[in-house]
């Protein structure tokens, strides 16, 4: 194991903290969610899949009538409505300060139209756009994988409706969230970065994808057949000797160059955007108790030079710049030709900012005191850009703050939490024409409030005199409630204030 550069990376797979039951579980805590399923099932590998219903509040289940499915998690999906810039989220309890592998599976089934295209969002960070059109034509499922740090006691994974893509709502078939061992990918700085999987390859393999139970985290190692250079062998490589715990079997196949010739690979097999990438390569001499020296270049830059033994070796770089098509060239520095067993490439992308904690907690408290709220009120209230909660407007300045709440005519009931007064950057509040009951909180801390519309609800109690001390207040609409007592004189006499107290209330002054 030899680090070459400093840390960072991009890829994701989600894990749940579910109790053990019938069926196998992955190493560590994990969530294995069969989206849209009515009951649990067990796949051909013995892994148990559970319904996603307890972790999501939106969308509807849809069965897929496709014959011959080998994976039971593809027999149903959860479809979400098309609502511009809405994000529909799963909220999964996790262990803070740990990192998680998120793998998402999408299988739209037979269709005569292009499947929906939509955004993936994790804890307020835009990850990537999902486009399954090519896989649908091939009749196969699409998998997206990434590694994210937990940023709190809940990990939120969201599907975002982006009107720039298509005019149909997002969907998902399966969601895995897997807690990784502390050693796995630990060279990456997850305080500011996440990793998105580009390729994970088992060179020389002509078989199926290698995954659980061979890989204890159910990572998918795709075969890379090349009959001219493929070699199989049996090793006793100990996976625990490697920081990211690869399955030992990846060392049992290899691509080996011809004698006195380099080994040249185009890998990964797609063109890459210019950026930083995490690259990890795995080597083990195919001959027992043997070694060979080789030189590895990626796009004409030396990646590694050293000796490979039958005990195995992993070499990684955490910020390797790649662009376009990538060539990996291995040349011999000894009698035996060069070889390679496996490799991983992740794209590295920055973790996005979040709404300041004070505002996020206030919004969660407000949400708990209300009923019939929009189904996209989950995840970060403001982020990522363009995906604030319905009715919420935010300022994305030095600190991300909630500045406006416009929930007029949404059919909301319940009461107003006093914690709404902690949203000290608010300039506008409107809950007009809903079914709110209870009293009006004290808004004394909202020193920037300009408009307060609480009319046409079922509010009772009195109006606090402190409301009249908020200097910027210019509109106050309270009519159509069941308020009583006297309207404070500092409101009746406030210069520049447009107010409506009647009809519908029981004030002693003014008369209503």
Automatic annotation (TrEMBL):
Transmembrane segments: none annotated. Keywords: Leucine-rich repeat, Membrane, Repeat, Signal, Transmembrane, Transmembrane helix. It is a single-pass membrane protein. Coiled coil: none annotated. The keyword Chloroplast does not apply. SUPFAM superfamilies: L domain-like. It holds the Pfam family Malectin_like. It is found in: Membrane. One of its GO terms (cellular component) is membrane. Residues 1-23 form the signal peptide. Residues 33-347 form the Malectin-like domain. Its main location: membrane. This is Malectin-like domain-containing protein. It comes from Triticum aestivum. The lineage of its organism: Eukaryota, Viridiplantae, Streptophyta, Embryophyta, Tracheophyta.
């Amino acid at each position: 194991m030899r680090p070459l550069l400093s840390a960072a990376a991009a890829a994701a797979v989600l894990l749940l903290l579910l109790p053990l039951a019938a069926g196998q579980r992955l190493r560590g805590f994990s969530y294995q969610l069969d989206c849209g399923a009515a009951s649990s099932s067990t796949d051909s590998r013995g892994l148990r899949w559970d319904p996603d219903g307890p972790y999501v509040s939106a969308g509807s289940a849809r069965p897929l009538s496709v014959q011959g499915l080998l994976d039971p998690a593809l027999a149903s999906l959860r479809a979400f409505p098309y609502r511009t810039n809405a994000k529909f989220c799963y909220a999964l309890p996790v262990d803070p300060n740990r990192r998680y592998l998120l793998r998402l599976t999408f299988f739209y089934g037979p269709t005569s139209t292009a499947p929906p295209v939509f955004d993936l969002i994790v804890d307020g960070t835009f990850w990537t756009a999902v486009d399954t059109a090519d896989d649908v034509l091939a009749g196969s499922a699409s998998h997206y994988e990434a590694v994210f740090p937990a940023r709190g006691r809940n990990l939120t994974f969201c599907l975002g409706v982006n009107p720039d893509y298509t005019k149909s709502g997002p969907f998902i078939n399966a969601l895995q969230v897997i807690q990784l061992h502390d050693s796995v990918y630990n060279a990456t700085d997850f305080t500011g970065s996440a990793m998105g999987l580009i390729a994970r390859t088992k060179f020389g393999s002509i078989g199926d994808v290698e995954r659980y139970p061979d890989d204890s985290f159910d990572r998918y190692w795709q075969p890379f057949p090349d009959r001219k250079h493929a070699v199989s062998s049996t090793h006793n490589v100990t996976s625990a000797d490697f920081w990211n715990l690869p399955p030992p079997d990846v060392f049992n196949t290899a691509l080996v160059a011809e004698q006195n010739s380099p080994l040249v690979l185009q890998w990964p097999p797609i063109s890459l955007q210019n950026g930083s990438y995490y690259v990890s390569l795995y080597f083990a001499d195919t001959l027992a108790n043997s070694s060979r020296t080789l030189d590895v270049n990626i796009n004409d830059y030396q990646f590694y030079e050293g000796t490979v033994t039958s005990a195995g070796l992993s070499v990684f770089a955490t910020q390797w710049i790649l662009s376009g098509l990538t060539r990996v060239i291995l040349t011999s520095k000894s009698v035996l030709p060069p070889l390679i067993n496996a490799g991983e490439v992740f794209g590295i992308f920055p973790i996005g900012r979040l709404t300041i904690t004070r505002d996020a907690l206030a919004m969660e408290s407000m949400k708990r005191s209300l009923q019939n709220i929009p189904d996209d009120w989950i995840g970060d209230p403001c982020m990522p850009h363009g995906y604030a909660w319905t009715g919420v407007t935010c300022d994305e300045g030095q600190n991300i703050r909630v500045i406006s709440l416009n929930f007029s005519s949404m059919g909301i009931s319940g009461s107003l939490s006093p914690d709404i007064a902690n949203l000290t950057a608010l300039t506008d509040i409107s809950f007009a024409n809903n079914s709110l009951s209870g009293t009006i909180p004290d808004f004394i801390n909202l020193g920037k409030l300009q408009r307060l519309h609480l009319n046409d609800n079922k509010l009772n109690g009195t109006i606090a005199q402190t409301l009249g001390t908020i200097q910027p207040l210019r509109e106050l609409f309270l009519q159509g409630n069941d308020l009583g007592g006297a309207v404070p004189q500092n409101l009746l006499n406030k210069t520049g204030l447009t107010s409506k107290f009647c009809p519908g209330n029981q004030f002693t002054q003014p008369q209503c």
